[in-house]
């Protein structure tokens, strides 16, 4: 069941039932029934590969080994298929070959099924596989710089499972305040999945305006870089000013107490020198 070069072309291919006489010994014809199988080379089942959404084409054969005609209804189980004829009448000792198309939704297992008027059912397994190229693609989203951490979302937008690496850099107004070399993250991202992650940052300078840059790299070198900024909040500035004022007040109080511990009326260095000179005279 090879994939068609062009999905649109496969949809308009002429679908026609083909009746082929089969050789069945007359002695066996009376007790022979009907069977269902892939047309052609004796395959036990149907198998097809294609890109997701591609349309593939194959043919199912209904063989009537008996002498009397048989009528069967064709259907698909587990997949969506379109048949050239759904209701197929097969004369005695004849094989009917019915083309059909099926769209590849992804990796899927199903069956082509036939049922006769007496309720007898025959089926052939059908396996579809979505053949997609390996592609690494990732994005970093929703980056937030918080008081003691950086939060972000990592999204795998490719077709392969990723174990990404993260590098973090942050620059303040006058210097670099954070520089972390690339390291493997403790996550395995399957295709199409998202992970919310946290990068600890204890001791982040609350009064400095910082620009943060996250760089995430896939094993094949594919990378995504995103930035975020953080500015001092009024609350942080007020708290810092209050802290500075308290520190200044504490220093002034300590100096005042130190001066207050001197003996009252004690001569200073100049007075001591004058008294000594007078005594000598």
UniProtKB/TrEMBL annotation:
This is DUF916 domain-containing protein. It comes from the Bacteria. Residues 270-281 have a biased composition (Low complexity). Keywords: Signal. Residues 1-28 form the signal peptide. Residues 257-281 are annotated as: Disordered.
């Amino acid at each position: 069941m090879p994939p068609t070069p062009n999905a649109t072309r496969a949809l308009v291919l002429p679908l026609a039932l083909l009746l082929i006489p089969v050789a069945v010994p007359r002695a066996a014809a009376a007790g022979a029934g009907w069977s269902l199988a892939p047309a052609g080379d004796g395959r036990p089942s149907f198998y097809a590969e294609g890109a997701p959404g591609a349309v593939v084409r194959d043919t199912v054969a209904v063989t009537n080994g008996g002498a009397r005609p048989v009528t069967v209804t064709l259907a698909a189980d587990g997949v969506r298929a379109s048949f050239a004829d759904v209701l197929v009448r097969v004369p005695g000792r004849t094989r009917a070959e019915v083309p059909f198309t099926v769209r590849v939704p992804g990796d899927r297992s199903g069956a082509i099924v036939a049922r006769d008027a007496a309720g007898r059912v025959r089926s052939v397994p059908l396996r579809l596989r979505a053949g997609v190229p390996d592609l690494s693609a990732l994005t970093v989203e929703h980056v937030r710089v918080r008081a003691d951490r950086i939060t972000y979302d990592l999204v795998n937008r490719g077709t392969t499972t990723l174990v990404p690496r993260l590098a973090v850099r942050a620059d303040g107004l006058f210097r670099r305040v954070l520089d972390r070399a690339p390291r493997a993250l403790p996550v395995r991202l399957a295709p199409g999945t998202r992970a919310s992650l946290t990068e600890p940052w204890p001791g982040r300078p609350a009064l400095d305006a910082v620009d943060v840059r996250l760089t995430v790299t896939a094993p094949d070198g594919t990378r995504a870089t995103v930035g975020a900024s953080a500015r001092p909040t009024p609350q942080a500035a007020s708290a810092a000013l209050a802290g500075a004022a308290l520190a200044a007040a504490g220093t002034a109080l300590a100096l005042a107490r130190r001066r207050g511990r001197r003996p009252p009326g004690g001569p200073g260095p100049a007075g001591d020198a004058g008294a000594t000179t007078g005594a000598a005279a």
